[in-house]
Amino acid sequence: MSKFIRTVLSLTILFMFILSSCNLPSATQQVGEPNTVFTQAAQTIEAQLTRSAPFNTPTLPPAPPTNTPISLPTLALASSTPAASPTAICDQAFFIKDVTIPDGTSMSAGDVFKKTWRIKNTGTCTWSGYTLVFDAGEAMNPVIDPIPTVGPGQEVDVSVTFTAPSDAKTYFSYWRIRNASGILLPVIGGDANKSFYVEIKVGDGGSGGPFAVTNVTMSASGSCGNFTITANITTNGAGSVTYKWKRSDGAIDNQAHDPIIFDAAGTQSVSTSWHLGAAGSHWMDIYIDNPNHQQFGRANLSCP
Question: If we measure between CA atoms, which residue out of 114, 110, 154, 150 comes closest to residue 131?
Answer without folding.
Answer: 150
